[in-house]
Amino acid sequence: xxxxxxxxxxxxxxxxxxxxxxxxxxxxxxxxxxxxxxxxxxxxxxxxxxxxxxxxxxxxxxxxxxxxxxxxxxxxxxxxxxxxxxxxxxxxxxxxxxxxxxxxxxxxxxxxxxxxxxxxxxxxxxxxxxxxxxxxxxxxxxxxxxxxxxxxxxxxxxxxxxxxxxxxxxxxxxxxxxxxxxxxxxxxxxxxxxxxxxxxxxxxxxxxxxxxxxxxxxxxxxxxxxxxxxxxxxxxxxxxxxxxxxxxxxxxxxxxxxxxxxxxxxxxxxxxxxxxxxxxxxxxxxxxxxxxxxxxxxxxxxxxxxxxxxxxxxxxxxxxxxxxxxxxxxxxxxxxxxxxxxxxxxxxxxxxxxxxxxxxxxxxxxxxxxxxxxxxxxxxxxxxxxxxxxxxxxxxxxxxxxxxxxxxxxxxxxxxxxxxxxxxxxxxxxxxxxxxxxxxxxxxxxxxxxxxxxxxxxxxxxxxxxxxxxxxxxxxxxxxxxxxxxxxxxxxxxxxxxxxxxxxxxxxxxxxxxxxxxxxxxxxxxxxxxxxxxxxxxxxxxxxxxxxxxxxxxxxxxxxxxxxxxxxxxxxxxxxxxxxxxxxxxxxxxxxxxxxxxxxxxxxxxxxxxxxxxxxxxxxxxxxxxxxxxxxxxxxxxxxxxxxxxxxxxxxxxxxxxxxxxxxxxxxxxxxxxxxxxxxxxxxxxxxxxxxxxxxxxxxxxxxxxxxxxxxxxxxxxxxxxxxxxxxxxxxxxxxxxxxxxxxxxxxxxxxxxxxxxxxxxxxxxxxxxxxxxxxxxxxxxxxxxxxxxxxxxxxxxxxxxxxxxxxxxxxxxxxxxxxxxxxxxxxxxxxxxxxxxxxxxxxxxxxxxxxxxxxxxxxxxxxxxxxxxxxxxxxxxxxxxxxxxxxxxxxxxxxxxxxxxxxxxxxxxxxxxxxxxxxxx
Length: 922
Prior knowledge:
Layout: H1 3-17, E1 38-40, H2 47-52, E2 58-59, E3 65-75, H3 94-102, E4 106-113, E5 116-122, H4 129-136, E6 142-149, H5 183-187, H6 190-196, E7 207-212, E8 251-253, H7 268-277, E9 293-298, E10 300-301, E11 304-305, H8 307-319, E12 324-327, H9 336-348, E13 352-356, E14 375-383, E15 389-394, H10 403-406, E16 418-421, E17 425-428, E18 436-440, H11 443-460, H12 466-475, H13 496-501, E19 516-518, E20 523-529, E21 539-545, E22 550-558, E23 566-570, E24 580-583, E25 594-601, E26 606-612, E27 620-630, E28 642-645, E29 651-652, E30 659-666, E31 678-685, E32 696-699, E33 703-706, E34 713-721, E35 731-737, E36 752-757, E37 760-762, E38 769-776, E39 788-795, E40 805-807, E41 811-814, E42 820-829, E43 840-841, E44 846-848, H14 858-867, H15 873-884, H16 889-899, H17 908-916
Parallel strand pairs: 2-6, 7-9, 7-12, 8-9, 12-13, 13-14, 14-16, 19-21, 29-35, 37-44
Antiparallel strand pairs: 1-3, 3-5, 3-6, 4-5, 10-11, 14-15, 17-18, 20-27, 21-26, 22-25, 22-27, 23-24, 23-26, 28-30, 30-33, 31-32, 31-34, 34-35, 36-38, 38-41, 39-40, 39-42, 42-43, 42-44
């Protein structure tokens, strides 16, 4: 055709497509690519059980998670001959050990409680924990039994290690405080959700189809989070799943009709994908839902998008079971085919749909956002164009953003539903695998942000109806203007915390008065408040019982700036003004987004905290932390406690291997009660004139259990230690363990001893080592596991000490060693008191290589050890250590210079060279 006809044809095409096209800033697409081991109890019929075991009671709480192989048991003290309590598994009464053995149960832990010693019992995998619980309640030996329930703790947020998450120059280390960090995910509470769930709510298993300009699937922050067609073999040029698309591994390019979904000229789709699914992987940035899967559906090229390609993409998303479709583009024309396709996806296939509201600051939202089946997403900002913080608002031209010829802003109106952040967003982009866009904006950015929060919600609640997800996203948003819906911000800016956990996040933790209990040890909770009609949650209540005298500090951190949020502390749960201790008041803005109260605290006192927003029209998220710093310890604090053994006896029966001593401790320091004392003991044979060097313990108050005994005359001494570490004088007891009336014959054969490992070289800065030994006993009465060990250690050249150290464990710990060469020997002792006459020794001794008090870099020393010491290096280091004290780099430099090996860099190589080529003249 001639040129005139060409011009007329182009004009007709433009008239047809222009109603579907709008424009945004240069950094985004101009076609109005606008800028998610336990079991659970439900119900039980306990009628028959109650009749059969009316005197026992099992605790059943419907709907609570529990461990499937553990039970908590309290034994009936009336049926046990002993009344002691100990945390040591080795001190469990024989009656209980025998009982558990008969029942095929394993004791995992013991807790001495005021109301009885409680045992954590592990049952075999092939036995139902519920059945075993009911069975045990029928036995008179059991006082109480219940499941080991799982309660969800009030946890901290996860802080991603991706470098763009946090600006290293930010003095207050707060990712919500500057425009050059990823404030969006943090203000929406996504990292709180990740941490609260133990990284279980991260969008894993949720598929989001991004209908856009394509996705650079090889980007370092996206490649592991791309959806992969499970039935397609990559790059084999075969349509393996017979879906009509050859090698559609990551999605499809509906423009070029091939599998290459990347785009080297327009990164808009890659940026949208990064907002949703950039990985938390120590590089680049982080996203809203860091484990979601992105299905890349390329529907635009050269800044244009056409209905035909979008229809195919929607059908593809339906066929391949996408959960969410994100569309950061739009136009003003009514497109019946597109509406029909989206209606099918939403109403029939239950796929959730989101679209950008538009960037023209208009009350007329664009399509597809305007369709009833689509969630329309507008954009907010917490900074103006001059990078000054402001209260969070809808983006408007007066903030200085230059969209749409200087008149741009987020579209709004009656069909707007939610908001997302829409400016200065850090996300993936670029030609290379490590390129990032640090200023992504518009409703193009807000739409995938809302899609990411929706993916977290699906991950948190995977079994809800599709309409429930949409309503939860809307009604749990942070309200920004008037209460409830308004045309400026819809239902508010999406909030991951409230969406995933509901309006009353800690309801399951509340007591009868509605208070959530906090810990005194630097505890943090994260929650939201709103007074919209469908939430009506304008205050949260917490209580804390302090454990020490000191100062109780309560910090409140405002996640959404501009809200009036206060904290008040009361001395009574009624929260009556007459019991008010302290209260913070005033407005919270970008320049003051936190509050703090400090209250003198008395140990054992309970304080009642209220976080409230009495005049709030908006909603907010916050973090509340509590801590107590102990102050004013009692004085004097250096008085040692005393100890009295109340049951020292002169004789014990045959076969005894452990003895329990009842002790009483007193502390003249009023700060310490006897129940807070620890007790340590030493034992020796009466024939040995010396006590061992170390003490064994601590043991529980009132009862000390001495183990590893056999038929012999013994001395034991026990001393108390108070909370401040003051050691009291010991009390002594001498006693005799009687020999077995029918000893094995022969009974005088000594055991044998060998060293398994632990000799040889030990690394830089070592002061303690472990030597593993083994023994054999020709006396059939004694198994190797019943052998005890006596050991000695000395430096090379010194004499062996007169006394032996004792160990009832084949793994012997030796502490407080200095650098040098040591000799170690050990001998086994059987139950009859026979000792190995030929102790085993470390064949090559023990060498501690590096002086702990030296300045030599430890990593260098470790490198030398792992690489093997050159023959002369160890004498070199020892010589310099002996003559010059600390071996530091100045000494190394002097040696290297003298030996002629100084290359300008003083390092480990200089030590090696000087050591190998040592010159006496140096």
